[in-house]
Amino acid sequence: MSLHQQVRKITTHVLQAMKLKQEKIAMLTAYDYSMARLLDAAGIDVILVGDSASNVMAGYDSTLPITLDEMIYHASSVVRAVKRALVVVDLPFGTYQGNSKKALQSAIRIMKETGSSAIKIEGGSEVEDSIKRILSAGIPVMGHLGLTPQSIHKFGTYVVRATEEEEAEKLIEDAHLLEESGCFGIVLEKVPAKLAAQVSKEIKIPIIGIGAGHEVDGQVLVLHDMLGITTEFSPRFLRRYLNLSDDIQMAVKNYIADVRSCDFPNDNEQY
Ligand code: KIV
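That is the input. Now the predicted structure with 3-methyl-2-oxobutanoic acid docked in place:
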């Protein structure tokens, strides 16, 4: 029996053991109670309460506007639903960069007010002090390298990162730094598969890819993208497992038609 089937609760130690046994880690985002309950019951290993909530839940065109209070609302809804998966919560933009004391306060609020198990931070050497201070309080930290959406205004586009040697070298250095600092894992977003494979081989902590090929230790996708609720976002790395957008619209159209025609409610659907 594989490791993830044996354990009743996924912890950062289980993820590390899964890497050692070369068992792939499955991670998805969730932002609310009902979805998180379904993901957990289906056996997902890690639920990320991503700041992608800013896009898919709130309708902003970047991850920058979402606030710490809003992330806490989403994360506590998710935690109430989850029995088995590890819940990781993104520290939103502006709550950890350039001020490690503020970073620790933000992380403590997330841990105290949501009951989640870990936080995630975007960046490498630029946020080293924040990462170290948070770790010193016993809070598990996941790193995030490659395409880091909170820095979109610095990069200008969402294209593949680290295709040039200089940026690839910086990414590898940052991955080592995160490992040495004590992070329990790293999300690697939209980088060449060959580079991701190299990082995953060199680094002992789990590397979770999104648009980073299959030679990493696990995969993560944004739930609304893989379920086909969002339709306008179609990067090459995205596999859609459902077309819920069509199904939901069809159901709503049927409902509207039934209401208008007085077909709903029928005699059995009333008191
Ligand atoms: O916020 C998010 O959903 C993320 C994933 C894309 C990894 O950071």
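The beta strands are 25-29, 46-49, 86-90, 118-120, 141-146, 185-189, 207-210, 218-221.
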